[in-house]
Amino acid sequence: MRLESVPSAQHQPAAPPALDTDEFRRIGRLAVDLVADYLAGIRDQPVVQPMTESGRRAVAQEEFPEHGAAPEELLTHFARHVLPYPMGNGHPRFFGWVNSPPSHMGIIAEFLAAAQNPSCDVGDLASIHLETAVTRWLAELVGFPADTGGILVSGGSAATLTCLAAARQQVAERLDWDLGRDGLQDPSRPRLRLYASAEVHSSLRKSVELLGLGHSAVRTIAVDADRRLDPDDLDRAVREDLANGDLPFCVVATAGTVNTGAVDRLDALADLCARHGLWLHVDGAYGAAAALLPELGEVYRGLERADSVSLDPHKWLSVPIETGCALVRDAALMRRTFSHVPPYLMTEQNVGIGGTLDYAEYGFQQTRGFRALKTWMTLQHMGRDGLRTLVRRHLRLARRLAELVDAADDLRRMSASPLSVVCFRYVPPGDPYTAQDLDRINRRLVADVQTDGRVFLTGTVLDGTYVLRACVLHHSTTEDDVTALVSVVREIGRGIAGKAGQA
Ligand SMILES: Cc1ncc(COP(=O)(O)O)c(C=O)c1O
């Protein structure tokens, strides 16, 4: 039947989930205004504010309505009950965990991507080619070749899981071990071992458990005074395991630890891995972005020799959550790790809509979101020089924070990092307190600062000691914000110590 001969449908008013074009435009504009006002006024808001009981009820306990609501009502509901209770990472005085604000072009790209809503697995589609472009850029950023296997995933945890699956595949292939068929069930096989420092991110444990290796397969290696994995201790552990009949196969190094921003000695680790035939994975979820700075060349030397790297655009690059990237130097191996294409998903390369690349063969997901657009728009908007400027700004602010901490008689700095994390502790002058008292005061301090709302930071434990931890990642944070962080911490710390002293 030719198209002209198809009787045209009577125009029907749009019904949910659709909107008429004019209504879509009107609601869309209201949403853009809402977001623009929110972003413009964010400094005047608390970084976070605790939810109220009625607010919680309004969000969590609402019933699934029998009848649909008007779109404008939904925007009002969002503005009243959701927008005032953010995580805080959009605020320039947020120094928590490793969470950046969303780039403005990333926010817009989320909207545009949702409008097209492709599944980014296979096809000769612009969305697929965009992912190829951005993963190539990220591969280049860490010094990997252009034909690296790269895929966008939900974040650093998923990236590490993806890369370690490839590492496991490589060692299995070496042993003629059909992992896809037999899994890790064969007791006649040697025990696989991998190595990381105690500073490695907790997602490593989840990955090795999911991969069937068990977390007892991970040997924890000592760190040096700068909290970097000690290559000599690693060498000893590998030799010991070999002597015991185990099979060392992978070292997980970190470029930017979550605790202190330490960057492992990647070049020495790459040498060691080459000597022992081990896979080198570098968790650069947070820190790999700083490899772009020539002045940090020495710190990052060896990153380009890794077998795989995880790098999160949703951390330092400010791409909206969820955007991680798994980079595996050997793209063919990566494909063998994940490829399983049933007939109903098969396309012929370059025939019809068939593309040359099927991302579902390079990772776990089949239907995949259009993460590439927000990454592409954010990176295009910044350019390499914009990204360098952003990272340098954060490094400068972190140094300034360290100086302010060092100058305060009631603060003690607890870490030194080449990146944008500063760990410190509130230690009341005179110090009549035990180590446990100080831990208690500092834990309380973090909780009180967080609910106070003027600034936000988090805590961690270093060598058994609880410390305050601040990470600079916001594009609009200024020196005044860093100064405010220090003065709020000291003010609240004085209050807590005063009460503790009276008790
Ligand atoms: C060094 C490092 N690796 C991995 C992760 C996990 O990343 P995600 O939370 O995106 O899964 C983080 C998160 O902060 C991290 O800092």
Give an overview in words.
It is a single chain. The protein has a 7-stranded mixed β-sheet with strand order 1-7-6-5-4-2-3, with helices on both faces. It has 503 residues and is an alpha/beta fold. It has 3 domains: 69 residues; 252 residues, Aspartate Aminotransferase, domain 2, CATH 3.40.640; 120 residues, Alpha-Beta Complex (Aspartate Aminotransferase, domain 1), CATH 3.90.1150. Strand 8 and strand 9 form a beta hairpin. The structure holds pyridoxal-5'-phosphate. The site of pyridoxal-5'-phosphate has 16 residues, from helix 6.
Low-confidence stretches: none
> Helix- and strand-based class?
alpha/beta
Give the overall average pLDDT. 95
CATH topology of the largest domain: Aspartate Aminotransferase, domain 2
User: What sort of overall outline do the alpha carbons produce when their principal axes are compared?
Assistant: globular
- What is the number of strand segments? 11
The ordered string of helix (H) and strand (E) elements is HHHHHEHHEHEHEHEHEEHHEEHEEH
Question: What does the radius of gyration come to?
Answer: 25 Å
Number of domains as seen in the coordinates: 3
CATH superfamily of the largest domain: Type I PLP-dependent aspartate aminotransferase-like (Major domain)
Strand arrangement, major sheet:
1-7-6-5-4-2-3
Sheet with most strands: 7 strands, mixed
Q: What hetero molecules are in the model?
A: pyridoxal-5'-phosphate
